[in-house]
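User: I've been trying to design a sequence by hand for this structure and keep getting stuck. Would you show me what you'd pick, starting by listing the structure so we're on the same page?

Assistant: Good idea, let's start from the same input. This is the structure you sent:
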């Protein structure tokens, strides 16, 4: 974990240093496998991409915690193989299809392996996992090829369970102290909601895919900012005296703008997608609709809690003397700004993504 420390003898404040840097080539390998999951034209290639992605995750997790690598990192591989085998079948039975969706989407209790990976991976690596959304990719391929297999009472039951998992993740976000964990909880909550949309008919799945774009864009911006704050200022805990608005105004503006758009503030792509998803769920399940409203509301509260604990309040003296600008940071801020503008354009002209 990155830490900031003060050299009292020399009076020099050293910037935080990552214990285990993430190699650029390693990230490129993971990114290539993640892209393959989404664009693989055939089932065998999809299976290869899925296995390659989870092998990469397990290797990186083993490097992070070699003392425990023999036991827990095997679980993601088992999950990945199970869901891809189900996806490779031509006409899987509905119970197996529902099970595959639950496992792939991280439905309670299958979310536990995601949480284990979060603890083991660097924030850049875990961000790639969130951006890939392998469970949604699996469900997308299955729904497109088997549009009627998830209908009926079993599908409605799984839909309600996904909404319940979204509520659980939102609740976890309220109690987590680390910014990345709280933001990841919002991302998982949004992912569960869009997985529920797959069981809410054609309009539900169309709106869920639009919400996927907003979720990926929002989590990319917010978690990248959280990672930059950790690497630059050593801030890895929510506290009332972080007060980074004054020392990092560029990240502050981006964080608050994308955060409110991410949780469904009018004007962004997520607001349009959540409005469509609300009406689709309303036609299928009152319980799922009520849970959806509570989950989106809680996500807004979680975001505000994270924002206030990172950027509001007084600034600790040791944070004011740390470097606030670097060439690498400037191009990252430019990229994050472009993604935020894209989400706003999606809210103004959602037809670009529908």
């Amino acid at each position: 974990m990155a830490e900031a420390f003060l050299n009292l003898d020399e009076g020099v404040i050293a910037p935080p240093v990552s214990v285990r840097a993430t190699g650029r080539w390693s990230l490129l390998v993971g990114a290539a496998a993640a892209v393959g999951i989404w664009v693989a034209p055939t089932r065998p290639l999809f299976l290869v991409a899925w296995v390659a992605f989870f092998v990469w995750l397990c290797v990186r997790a083993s490097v992070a915690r070699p003392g425990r690598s023999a036991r827990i990192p095997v679980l993601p591989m088992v999950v990945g193989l199970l869901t891809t085998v189900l996806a490779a079948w031509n006409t899987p039975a509905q119970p197996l299809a529902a099970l595959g969706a639950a496992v792939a989407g991280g439905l309670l209790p299958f979310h536990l392996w995601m949480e284990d990976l979060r603890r083991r991976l660097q924030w850049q690596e875990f961000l790639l996992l969130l951006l890939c959304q392998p469970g949604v990719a699996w469900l997308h391929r299955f729904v497109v090829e088997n549009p009627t297999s998830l209908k009926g009472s079993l599908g409605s039951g799984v839909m309600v369970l996904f909404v319940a998992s979204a509520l659980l993740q939102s609740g976890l976000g309220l109690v987590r102290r680390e910014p990345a964990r709280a933001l990841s909880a919002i991302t998982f909550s949004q992912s569960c909601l869009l997985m529920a949309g797959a069981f809410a008919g054609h309009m539900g799945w169309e709106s869920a895919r639009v919400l996927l774009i907003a979720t990926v864009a929002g989590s990319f911006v917010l978690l990248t900012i959280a990672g930059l704050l950790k690497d630059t200022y050593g801030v890895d805990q929510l506290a009332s005296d972080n007060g980074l608005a004054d020392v990092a105004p560029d990240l502050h503006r981006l964080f608050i703008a994308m955060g409110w758009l991410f949780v469904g503030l009018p004007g962004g792509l997520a607001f349009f997608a959540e409005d469509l998803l609300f009406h689709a769920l309303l036609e299928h399940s009152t319980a799922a609709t009520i849970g959806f409203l509570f989950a989106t509301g809680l996500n807004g509260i979680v975001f505000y809690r994270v924002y206030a604990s990172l950027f509001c309040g007084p600034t600790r003296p040791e944070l004011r003397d740390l470097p606030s600008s670097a060439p690498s940071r400037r191009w990252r801020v430019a990229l994050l700004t472009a993604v935020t503008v894209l989400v706003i354009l999606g809210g103004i002209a959602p037809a670009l993504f529908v």
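That's my pick for every position. To get oriented when you compare it with your attempt: The first strand starts at residue 3 and ends at 7. Residues 1-21, 66-73 have pLDDT under 50 and may be disordered.
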